[in-house]
User: Fold this.
Amino acid sequence: MLRLVLSSLLVVVSPTLAASQQGGGGAPHDSVRGAVRLVDARNHALEVMTGVGMTLRVVRLQVPATVPVTATPGRDQLALSDLKAGDVVRVTFGNRTGRLVAYTIERIGRMASGVERSP
Assistant:
């Protein structure tokens, strides 16, 4: 009888416990690290090119005006228009109404253009 009561209690309580452990109720998110391909400040959009194995992938993100854009060394605040093609960024984003929307953008470096000459 005790086993029946405990197993019934487990069946009722476990979904509630699992749901409470899945984060603080915020929107689900993902992140991408890659090179800026295109900055469209007029339409508040950003394209990031990243490598997945041997494949290149372009992620197009909507960037609301309230999204913080920072630079890593001093965590300086930047404008979206300060990002240039070739900047290396880390972006956290989520899916809202079928669009990928950025939550934070962090510039972590810049890609060097060209190849250095060897002596």
